């Protein structure tokens, strides 16, 4: 573990990728103390998720706002200033230099940790070519991780498959947060670069973002407990 994480449960971030805050409340209630950290993406944020964020923070839960901010620097600065007041733990921005500089300025002295998204885990080299990039995924991830480190970003969001590359660039002090985690035997869905929880921990990932394998399970609490057992065994 490269970062000191006092509560092992914090290594698992449950993605509340559901359409309504009532669905989210139900999942949080089902998981109880089995989970301590939740991700809210912009689909839920636009459906009342910021109100849910405040409630979770008030209940002592940790919150990762996965909003992937990207705009001109001043607009990002102002957006991060507003979000810093919510008491959330993590916020994502896209790893464009101007965007990251604006986010760091907006965060100022707040405790909020900024995470830079290098390349979405649903992308492969062909997707990058279609988007007009001349770099392969691994090369783009390396370049953006280097830019994030020099900008003062706190951590990197990347596929677990790129963990070794990122850790080599950012060293031990920056967080690595990985979506697209799939327990053995579960469907990959739209994720193209995945690892199991144990593989990701052994690769050096600090926090695992896990959604469908938990929230769509017949027994979400049991699924979360099984994943935590795998994380504990690999830590």
TrEMBL record:
Entry's Gene Ontology BP terms: 'de novo' pyrimidine nucleobase biosynthetic process; 'de novo' UMP biosynthetic process
E.C. code: 4.1.1.23
InterPro entries: Aldolase_TIM, OMPdecase, OMPdecase_AS, OMPdecase_bac, OMPdeCOase_dom, RibuloseP-bd_barrel
Catalytic activity: orotidine 5'-phosphate + H(+) = UMP + CO2
Pfam families listed in its UniProt record: OMPdecase
Matches recorded under SMART domains: OMPdecase
One cellular component (GO) term of this entry: cytosol
Orotidine 5'-phosphate decarboxylase domain sequence ranges: 11-227
Subunit structure: Homodimer.
Known role: Catalyzes the decarboxylation of orotidine 5'-monophosphate (OMP) to uridine 5'-monophosphate (UMP).
Protein name: Orotidine 5'-phosphate decarboxylase
Species for this entry: Bosea vaviloviae
Higher taxonomy: Bacteria, Pseudomonadati, Pseudomonadota, Alphaproteobacteria, Hyphomicrobiales
